[in-house]
Amino acid sequence: MKNSFLWNSMIRGYACNGFSLKSLVMCREMLNFGQKPDNFTYLFVLKACGDILIRGIGRKVHALVLVGGFESNIHLVNSLLLMYFTFGELAIVRLLFDKMSLRDLTSWNTVIYGYVKNGEPNDAFLVFDHMRRASGIGDRTTLLALLFACSDLMDSKLISVDIICCVPSATKRYHAPH
């Protein structure tokens, strides 16, 4: 009898190596064998759903996350954010993000980049501004997403000290030594 660690290892292996459909099949087999999914199972299945654009299963997994009491797991919510952005479901993303009691840098970056990828650079900047007020500093990923947002806008003045000063780790290596 396989335990959840072994099932999750197989599901993860498939999901992270381009075999998303196979990872979903493994999840179904896991359920058929009576093994209960856990938060790790859901992480990998959400990734697979986003990778191959399977909304129905993704929504069912979201419901299972809620029923299982995992809605406060920041890693699962971040995965849900990414999956729903992939589906272009911005209203659901906004609801999930607004409900988050705790956000990490991955949460902020996922939402900023998700808005950019969905053609909403102004929303990306609004979230960035909210991030700066709430938690302060971004990273290289934040900077890259904001640069993409700037390229989507016609106003290049948005690339400013405001962005650079909030992402110090992204600019460290470009400063000349003293």
UniProtKB/TrEMBL annotation:
What is the top-level taxon of the source organism? Eukaryota
Q: Where are the PPR repeats?
A: 3-37, 104-134
For this UniProt record, give its keywords in alphabetical order, as a comma-separated list: Repeat
Q: Which GO terms describe its molecular function?
A: RNA binding
Q: Name one GO biological process term.
A: RNA modification
Q: Which NCBIfam families match?
A: PPR
The name under which this protein is listed is Pentatricopeptide repeat-containing protein
Q: Which organism is it from?
A: Clitoria ternatea (Butterfly pea)
